[in-house]
């Protein structure tokens, strides 16, 4: 699994697009997760295009085969967090490439980039906003 981009800087109302590419077809078995700081991951969707109740309609999901997209049409402060794609076609249920790195930390009066190695199956895309 390859997920892009690794990080996004957003402002309220922005449109956010996260892409996930599988090395071979996973049909429509692509789940997306949201993880907020200090919390367990929350599954947003279990297959490519079916949004469960309770997930905001600002969130949309599309794709099949090898290419998938997650979009937030109008991002809000509460959307800040890490987002994961996970294929569910075959075991192991791959989350991402290993050893992905790079976080971008946004401060009130400046921007500091922080890079360090992450453990396997750590976050790939982090959305942070200076709200």
Automatic annotation (TrEMBL):
Gene3D superfamilies: Immunoglobulins. PROSITE patterns: IG_LIKE. Residues 1-86 form the Ig-like domain. It comes from the Eukaryota. Pfam families: V-set (PF07686). SMART domains: IG, IGv. This is Ig-like domain-containing protein. The lineage of its organism: Eukaryota, Metazoa, Chordata, Craniata, Vertebrata.
């Amino acid at each position: 699994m390859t997920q892009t981009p690794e990080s996004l800087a957003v402002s309220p109302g922005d449109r956010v697009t996260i892409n996930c590419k599988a090395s071979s077809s996973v049909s429509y078995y692509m789940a997306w997760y949201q993880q907020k700081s200090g919390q367990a991951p929350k599954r947003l969707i279990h297959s490519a295009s079916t949004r469960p109740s309770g997930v905001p309609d600002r969130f949309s999901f599309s794709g099949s085969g090898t290419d998938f997209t997650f979009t937030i049409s109008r991002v809000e402060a509460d959307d800040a967090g890490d987002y994961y794609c996970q294929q569910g076609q075959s075991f192991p249920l791959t989350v991402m490439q290993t050893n992905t790195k790079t976080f971008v930390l946004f401060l009130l009066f400046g921007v500091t980039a922080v890079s360090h190695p992450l453990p396997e199956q750590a976050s790939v895309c982090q959305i942070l906003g200076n709200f």
